[in-house]
């Protein structure tokens, strides 16, 4: 079991492994519970931490094998999007973006809830406009554009939801726009579509690679299990 089960609010707290964290699984901390359950710890830097995504990263590295770049940024979107810096087969740093949680809070619980429809279908045009706007002004100022699009431009709530998503994902990926490192995004289908569109709008398409995240945790757990059995 990996993820929050080993956190302070989980089943049994395990200490974080300090980076660098080898992507062959050798650095994983595992504790056996009830004689048959193997609980996997998370990893941390001096200022950030992940639990669960490290196991996805092990699965991603196993999937890519020798095709894993020498240096890259692994992006694992979600409620808290994780950016993992990879160098020479190890995670050396990490950065958390609260992109998914911010979207939910803003679209459902802020003044912007009157201008958005959180469950609306993806609108690529409005999304691209949001990505572009995220690069024009600071995020805290750009967010109010969601409100003015509705009031002044008469944009409908579904389109505004896509615009808000573009703002947030654009601000997240924009932090990687100046780097030349390859960016590997592992996510479900809808998020892969959004991140690919944002990357293209930001001029990152040539160094962006997309993978399905669904099998990665199980593959990473298999990497750990093989080490335990060996």
Q: Could you characterize the architecture of this molecule?
A:
Helix 2 (99-109) runs antiparallel to helix 6, helix 3 (124-134) crosses helix 7 (189-201) and helix 5 runs antiparallel to helix 6. This protein is an alpha/beta fold. The chain has helices at 53-64, 99-109, 124-134, 139-142, 144-151, 157-174, 189-201, 216-229, and strands spanning 17-18, 21-22, 30-33, 37-40, 43-44, 49-50, 71-76, 81-87, 90-97, 183-187, 208-212. It is built from eight helices and eleven strands. Strands 2-9-8-7-10-11 form a six-stranded mixed sheet, with helices on both faces. A three-stranded mixed sheet has the order 1-5-6, with no helix packed on it. It is elongated.
Q: Which structural class best describes the helix and strand composition? A: alpha/beta
Largest sheet: 6 strands, mixed
Order of helices and strands: EEEEEEHEEEHHHHHEHEH
pLDDT averaged over residues: 96
Strand numbers in spatial order across the main sheet: 2-9-8-7-10-11
Query: Helix count, per DSSP?
Result: 8
By DSSP, the count of extended strands is 11
Which range does the strand content fall in? 15-25%
Low-confidence stretches: none
Rounded to the nearest angstrom, the distance between the terminal CA atoms is 19 Å
């Amino acid at each position: 079991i990996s993820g929050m089960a080993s956190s302070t609010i989980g089943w049994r707290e395990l200490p974080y492994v300090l980076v660098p964290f080898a992507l062959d699984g050798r650095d994983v901390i595992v504790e056996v519970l009830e004689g048959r359950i193997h609980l996997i710890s998370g990893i941390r830097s001096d200022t950030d931490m992940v639990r669960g995504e490290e196991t996805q990263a092990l699965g991603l590295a196993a999937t890519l094998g020798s095709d894993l770049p020498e240096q890259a940024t692994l992006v694992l979107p979600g409620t808290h999007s994780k950016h993992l810096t990879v160098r020479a087969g190890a995670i050396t740093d990490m950065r958390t973006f609260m992109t998914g949680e911010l979207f939910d809070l803003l679209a459902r619980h802020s003044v912007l809830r009157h201008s958005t429809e959180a469950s609306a279908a993806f609108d690529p045009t409005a999304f691209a406009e949001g990505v572009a706007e995220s690069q024009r002004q600071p995020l805290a100022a750009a967010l109010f554009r969601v409100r003015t699009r509705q009031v002044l431009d008469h944009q409908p709530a579904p389109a505004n939801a896509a615009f808000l998503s573009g703002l947030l994902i654009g601000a997240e990926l924009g932090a990687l726009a100046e780097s030349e490192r390859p960016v590997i995004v592992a996510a479900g289908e809808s998020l892969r579509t959004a991140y690919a569109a944002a990357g293209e709008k930001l001029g990152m398409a040539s160094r962006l690679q997309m993978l399905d995240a669904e099998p990665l945790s199980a593959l990473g757990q298999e990497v750990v299990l093989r080490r335990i059995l060996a």
